[in-house]
Amino acid sequence: MINNDVLRSIRYMLDLSDIKVVEITKLADADFPIEKTDVQAFLKKDDEEGYVECSNRVLAHFLDGLVFHYRGKDESQPQRPIEKRVTNNVVLKKLRVAFQLKDVDMHQAFEDAGFPISKPELTALFRQPEHKNFRLCGDQALRNFLKGLTLRVRGNG
């Protein structure tokens, strides 16, 4: 999925202001160079004037910040390196950690979006890429997961 779409979906799901997106992103690295105007440019549609592509670096900082926002930061642990490449699988993993989702919660989110997946399919999405049963998370799967998670977080109303 396009990074801008992921950012847009999560921002809508959590009803975050542009400033809150900046604050969450800076939780991963206080010195990370991002401003409200950057967020506004990321949120524009790709055919709008002023649109800027959201880089893997920005999205990785935002997702890590989201984990810290919801789970807190363990200062006794060394800072994990920021992902160089943010795949759909990484987005899924970060959201799972941030919202402390169990397998049953993940299945429910997919189910709520009308996109049920089996236990082996879900497990395959969280395996290491070198594992023989690893499966790439497709755009449709991530889009439906975000939709199901949005229904869960925002309610059906």
Structure description:
By secondary structure, the chain is mainly alpha-helical. The protein has two domains: 3-71; 88-154. The chain has helices at residues 3-14, 18-28, 36-43, 56-71, 88-98, 103-112, 119-125, 139-154. Helix 1 packs parallel to helix 8 (139-154), helix 2 packs across helix 4 and helix 4 (56-71) runs parallel beside helix 5 (88-98). The protein is globular, with a radius of gyration of 16 Å. Pfam families: DUF1456 (PF07308). This is DUF1456 family protein. InterPro entries: YehS-like.
Defining key terms:
YehS-like; 157 residues; mainly alpha; single chain; 2 domains; 8 helices; globular
Number of strands: 0
Biggest sheet character: none
- Quick one: overall form? globular
Kindly report the average pLDDT value.
94
Oligomer: single chain
Integer-rounded radius of gyration: 16 Å
Number of domains: 2
Q: Order of SSEs, N→C?
A: HHHHHHHH
- As residue ranges, the low-confidence spans are none
- Count of DSSP-assigned helices: 8
Helix vs. strand class: mainly alpha
- Binned strand content: under 5%
Helix content: 55-70%
InterPro entries: YehS-like
Pfam families: DUF1456 (PF07308)
Protein name: DUF1456 family protein
In short:
The protein is mainly α. Helix content is 58%, strand content 0%.
